[in-house]
Design a protein that fits this description.
The protein has 207 residues and is of the alpha/beta class. It has six helices and ten strands; from the N terminus they run E-E-E-H-E-E-H-E-H-E-E-E-H-H-E-H. Bound molecules: cytidine-5'-triphosphate and magnesium ion (MG). The site of cytidine-5'-triphosphate has 22 residues, from helix 2.
């Protein structure tokens, strides 16, 4: 366990593409968000669980704090930040919808921040050819597919969220204020559950 490191698990999405809040589906006897929280647990002192407004008041085992999320992922991260103690130096943000992330990946991003980065994100090389809808193929050697868990210097993450900016991940916000973002080796099977097919695949991999 790392002192002065806390985690935020964002679990307040509605799962519009899935058809329901996918983070509450059960996978091999545990909810998807429990798998996500457990990957964090060995590496952090405390975990903030950010849940949909209508789940507030329900027991959330393994969480040090439970807060209601916002209308967007960025707003939900900000809600989580409000429950992280001020003394905390490193914050790890993780999607509840990624049940396959391993504790070793959490350790890897934390280590990169300890070594001086403002932010560390897992990235995978892109294997498909990526074509723009406007036409033209992007140079895939210059692209990485970014995952969570993402680790941050706490002060930088808080500053990046000032003014309530929006982005699909927090590293983009850190970069927007001039912070350094390091990419570590991602975990190939750490995909995000987006559709019911993803849930089936995750079940097979955890079985
Ligand atoms: N999330 C959140 N608060 C929001 C939106 C998303 O906490 N307002 C969380 C989701 O619960 C998920 C993670 O952010 O763990 C990544 O989001 P995504 O995969 O897009 O989940 P949803 O937004 O729930 O799905 P969809 O976009 O299909 O509606
Ligand atoms: Mg979403």
């Amino acid at each position: 366990m790392s002192e002065n490191v806390w985690g935020i698990v964002v679990a307040a999405g509605s799962g519009s593409r899935f058809g329901s809040p996918k983070q509450y589906e059960v996978l091999r006897g545990r909810r998807v968000l429990d798998w996500a929280r457990q990957a964090m647990r060995t590496n952090v002192e405390g975990v903030v669980m950010v849940v949909p407004e209508d789940r507030m008041g329900k027991l959330e085992p393994g969480a040090n704090a439970v807060v209601a999320g916002g209308a967007t992922r960025s707003a939900s991260v900000r809600a989580g930040l409000s429950a992280v103690p001020d003394r905390v130096e490193i914050i790890v943000v993780h999607d509840a919808a990624r049940p396959l992330a391993r504790a070793s990946l959490v350790a890897l991003v934390i280590e990169a921040v300890r070594n001086g980065a403002d932010a560390a994100v897992p990235g995978l090389e892109v294997t498909d050819t990526i074509r723009s809808l406007d036409g033209g193929v992007l140079d895939r050697s210059q692209l990485v597919a970014v995952q969570t868990p993402q680790a941050f210097r706490a002060d930088v993450l808080r500053r990046a969220h000032e003014g309530e900016p929006e982005a699909t991940d927090d590293a983009a916000l850190v970069e927007a204020i001039g912070g350094t973002v390091v990419v570590v080796d991602g975990q190939p099977d750490n995909f995000k559950i987006t559709t019911p097919t993803d849930l089936k695949i995750a079940g097979l991999l955890l079985g």
